Amino acid sequence: MNLEPNFEYGILVSEGEVESEGNICKQDQLFRFHNSDIANNKSIKLAAKKGTRIMFIGGEPLNNQVLMWWNFVADNKAEIEQSIVDWNNGHERFGNVDSDMKRLPAPELPKGLKG
């Protein structure tokens, strides 16, 4: 597979676990490739147990910093705070999932979070 050296890549483990260079990523964790590894044509070796499922993701880096909290990604703290309010109040911008599962409330931002 040819990888673009200026892009960012990662492997999201959806089931099982993946090991690379002594680092272990378990279910719902992300292993991020460093751009320098790709630019220098370094081999990236992964090992996974049978039955492990992963998603390879990547793309061109964003031009600006983003703030991530829980399931939200935004440009600043105020947008994250509004997303928490909107999610917890069932705002239509998040749509509706037809499920018998209870909707989890978004947690408050940690004290001192910068953004």
**Spatial order of strands in the largest sheet:** 4-1-6
Major sheet size, sense and barrel closure: 3 strands, antiparallel
Query: Overall 3D geometry?
Result: globular
Helices and strands, in order, run as EEEEHEEEEH
Number of helices: 2
The number of domains is 2
Structural class determined from secondary elements: alpha+beta
Uncertain segments = none
Ends distance? 36 Å
- pLDDT averaged residue by residue: 86
| Proportion of beta-strand residues | 25-35%
Radius of gyration: 18 Å
Helix content: 10-25%
Strand runs, count: 8
Could you explain the architecture of this structure?
- It comes from Psychrobacter proteolyticus.
- Residues 3-91 form the Pirin C-terminal domain.
- InterPro entries: Pirin_C_dom, RmlC-like_jellyroll, RmlC_Cupin_sf.
- Pfam families: Pirin_C (PF05726).
- This is Pirin-like C-terminal cupin domain-containing protein.
- With 115 residues, the chain is of the alpha+beta class.
- The protein has two domains: 8-59, no CATH class; 62-115, no CATH class.
- Helix content is 15%, strand content 30%.
- It contains two helices and eight strands; from the N terminus they run E-E-E-E-H-E-E-E-E-H.
- It has helices at residues 35-39, 77-88, and strands at residues 8-15, 17-20, 23-26, 30-33, 47-48, 53-59, 67-69, 72-74.
- Strands 4-1-6 form a three-stranded antiparallel sheet.
- A hairpin with a 2-residue loop joins strand 2 and strand 3 (23-26).
- The N and C termini lie far apart (36 Å).
- The model has no long low-confidence stretch (mean pLDDT 86).
